[in-house]
Amino acid sequence: MPDNRENMQIIRNQHFEGERPLFESHHLRLEHVTIGEGESAIKECSDIDVVDCHFWGKYPLWHVHGFLVERCQFDAGARSALWYSDHLVMRDTRIDAPKMFREMEHLKLENVIINDADETFWRCKDIKATNLELHDGTYPFMFCENVRIDHLKSDSKYVFQYCKNVEINQAHIVTKDSFWECENVTICNSILDGEYLAWHSKNVRLVNCHLAGEQLLCYADHVVLENCTFDKACDRVFEYSDVHADIRGHIENIKNPTSGHIIADSIGSITIDENVRQPANCEIQVTQS
After folding, report:
1. How is residue 108 annotated by DSSP?
2. pLDDT tens-digit profile of 89-100?
3. Cut 0.85: pTM above it
4. Which of 65, 73, 139, 161 falls 20 to 30 Å from 3 in CA-CA distance?
């Protein structure tokens, strides 16, 4: 996004609707503008500022290259609002519409609340976010790459599937089937509450995290836990996984880890049965009697 914005055309306090009212606009700033009924209001555009605006028409920002969205409201009717676009900065914005952010690159978000996160952030690359909230919906962050989020709150289902290169700090995620088939994931200082965490994933590192849910971290390759805690209800953890875990406090049940090393203050039970997979050489150590 260019730093020189002095020569932008400015449109203030207007209402647009219908089909493509601002098609092929460039170097344009919208202030206190409403985008009503219709489709594709701001399409095939570049170098766009959208400030204090209100959207309720469909597909308003497609194929936009280099744009700022600040202090805006997207109503439920503004579904699928941002697709096939790049170099977005979004701040202090509320989104009540589903299916946002598809096939996009270079996104920077700050203080954004998404109240219907259904199928949001699909096939996006290079995402940086601070103070992001996701509510309701399913499968946000599907097939995303290069994601960095600081302060995430999410109760959406099935978050982060088939992702690569994800870094998350200070998150509270309540979900299930999260981080499935992901690669290169680091999560720090977070609460992860939900079943089937990170199944079939590779290179997952959890630091100072609290985990809740059943059958966590199974079928995973190279899982590392540093200074993590588990809810008492967790069981059948680490099944068929290569794991290197430093667990603080108690873990209720460990089942058939494939390899690695696990240390915990106390363990309720360890299940190693005829179904354990080779090399079947995971070392498990209890530090308190």
Report:
1. E
2. 999 999 999 999
3. yes
4. 73
